[in-house]
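Tutorial sheet, problem 5. The two components below are modelled jointly, 639 residues in total.
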Amino acid sequence: MDLDALTGCLTSSACLVTQTTSGLIIGMLLFLVAVGLTLIFGVLKIVNFSHGAFYMFGAYFAMTTYHLTESFALAMLAGAAGTAILGLIFERVFMSRVYGADVLMQLLVCYAFVLIFDDVVRLIWGPEFKSMGMPAAFQVMPLFIAGGVVPPYYLLLIGVALVAAIVLGIGLSRSRIGKVIRAAAHNPGMVSALGINTGLIYGGVFALGGMLAGLAGALAAPVRSLTPGMGFSVLIESFIVTVIGGMGSIVGALVGALLIGLIRSFGSLGFPLFTEGLMYLFMVIVLVSKPTGLFGKEAA
Amino acid sequence: MTELEAGRAQALLPVRSGAALQRYRDVLIALIAFAVLASLPMFTGSEALLDFVIRCSAYGLFATSLNLLVGYTGLTSFGHGMFFGLGAYSFGLIMQKLGVPIPVAFVATLAITAVIAAVIGAICVRLKDIYFAFVTLAFQMLIHSTILSWASFTGGDQGLRGGIPRPVFLGIDLANHVHLYVASCALLILGLLAMRQIAQSPFGYTLRMIRDNAARASFLGIDVWRAKLTVFVLAALFASMGGMVMALFVSGAYPEFAYWTISGEGIFINMLGGVSTFLGPMVGTVLLLLLNDTVTRFTEYHGIVLGVVILFFALGLRKGLLDFVAEWYTHRRDAGEGR
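Model answer (structure tokens):
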């Protein structure tokens, strides 16, 4: 425990800004993964245990595209589009077979794919750590805000995630497709009877979730190292986020992700070894006081 | 819900009047199984085979105890591995720091597990379904983080090293490989027998009723919370026993024992073997360890092979192996009687 470091940081604006931005980027990346998870749970009632694999594939797709084309924009696009296609295939071919089956059975299928995907990445890209490298456009002087150091890439990352959150939120609540998706989450039988292809919606939601996780992976690729199994810790953390925020709630995912991001960045100062423990402690407290999470609804 | 429906059909049968008879049968089977296992070293000098059986004992106790929660009570715990890790660590620590005889450390570990399980269980069993799963997972990771960060006491990420002392007790020397083997088999058989008694007792049938319809059980005057808590603590004790066998086997304890993947493997073993038969988890244990051992020998990409096998079980059989065999057998028998 190192409470002096924590209180020292809280009283210095430079440290405060640095830690807050690092908390924000952790939180924003987590949000992109967690929102897909919560969306898939909300509509398909499936806990997608293999969601971390999409994050991993997004990062690897982006890295390969970047090394081939030297274009950052194309790399992001490849990360997002590649995982969207992967998500669609995964849902249509495998997950659609276990709807209505035992929850454990669904988890088992996902677990199988966690194992398979990790090995596929190891086969294609090798087991060693890889890095994409910071794109030239962002290799500029960091900004100084109130004495704290903020790399410009962090701002882009936070911006993209915020845009995704807003588009998703408005899209789901206002657009026609959003309404159909929410209706399908509520009563799939009725939606199907109205002549709407629910299979297509399920596949689409899975693809959307996969795409967001892939985008998170692609955005993280320049600032994190890539390794098979990288999706796993992200998966666990985004589970915590969805549980804290409430399964199925997009606002909850955003709030939960930011809370976890800040706990991580400030907790690593005060409790360097117990940072993870803090997250789990927070999760226990939330679950015990409000089992459905901060923004979850009773028996949705 | 195909697994559980099969179990439900079984649960609706009246408790046999020959309960005592069945108990004698169980004890007899246990004695025969122990005799067979214990005489194994006389026929084979293969250390690898004995090691395999010891590992099966550790994981088998753990997986079967998890089935008390998952299969019998309908409590899907994602954090059951915490008690496996807790057993390994507290047994190792007591032996290293206090130097007491092994049975004393054994009983002390069970007592510590019972207290911690009662506290955690009291918080967890109030929650239902997926929330129960998540809160148990959170506690598991909390214990894992504590082990990692309390390095001065637990050895942190290096694990509990320096070996576990094994003073000879009543002529039993657990440093001797064959002695350790026989002791593990004895613990496994005793543990399985005890869990079988719990499962077949009136309390075991209360658990099945809670799984099938908790509201009805509550109306019939059963204190559901208390019954769930009791089985949570009981299952933790057997998981802790598995952890102790594991600690003796590797002569140490590692943070991985308390990591959530152990719980994941426990669930996986149950699904592989089947949750509606008592010995399903045991079959699953042997299957998974066999799979792990053979596949890792042939390819470094064992994840792919293991994944495909799991898919075969999940999408092909759609139930555990022993459940599948049991259903196939009843189906055949019923068809034969109908003729």
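Marking note: Chain B has one domain: 3-258. Full credit if you identified this.
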